[in-house]
Amino acid sequence: VALASALAVSAPVVARAPGVGLAASPAAHADVTCEDALLVAVTGGGEGGVEDPGTTLGALTSPLVSEVAATGRTLTTRVVHADTLGPSALQGRGTKRTAAEKAVTRSAWNTWRAPVPGLVSGLEAALAETLPSCPDQLVYLVGYSQGAEAVHRYLATRADADLRTRAVAVV
User: Fold this and answer.
1) pTM for this one?
2) CB count in 10 Å sphere of residue 52
3) pLDDT tens by residue, 31-56
4) 150/120 Cα distance (integer angstroms)
5) CA–CA separation, 46 and 130 (whole Å)
6) Residue 4 carries which DSSP code?
């Protein structure tokens, strides 16, 4: 399944109170403005789009964006999206003996999980675009379904100590 080619990372969307923002570090490019926080939403479960976190992630991200803006802080939101399958794709059609084996087949599981490596790479790219230039920026990572697996996998295998100290929430 060629799902990796459908991977997309949205353009940054900034929630900003007027006149608020952090200057980039001196080592950063002069044209970079660092927001107070970065929210990366990684889609899954057949939801979302390139600039849309989907229904489930939207229920988490929308209140956060509003709350941050209400406090006068700034937040950049990035959406990492790949075409994913919903939970119904996991329903097995095999002739196994147990109910659990009938419910989820290895083939269905592998097909459902296929976009995860691409989502991990997309998450890594989204973080790499901002974090090196913005050393004081806090990070929120949220994922749904395959996106949640991608966030977990990234944190377990690729995240450095710097990200772990800057991550204020992982859902």
Assistant:
1) 0.78
2) 15
3) 568 999 999 999 999 999 988 999 99
4) 5
5) 27
6) G
| Residue 21 contacts residue 34 (beta carbons within 8 Å) | yes
- Find, among 105, 127, 113, 120, the residue nearest to 37 by Cα: 127
Per residue, the 3-state secondary structure of 86-136, as one string, reads CHHHHECCCCCCCHHHHHECHHHHHHHHCCHHHHHHHHHHHHHHHHHHCCC
Q: What's the N-to-C CA distance of the chain in angstroms?
A: 28
CA–CA distance, 104 with 127 (Å, rounded to integer): 33
Which of 129, 144, 154 minimizes the C-alpha distance to 78? 129
Query: Residue 75, SS3?
Result: strand
Separation between Cα atoms, residue 6 and residue 93, nearest integer Å: 27
In the predicted structure, residue 11 carries a pLDDT above the cut 70: no
Distance of alpha carbon 5 from alpha carbon 57, whole angstroms? 22
| pLDDT at residue 30, rounded to an integer | 47
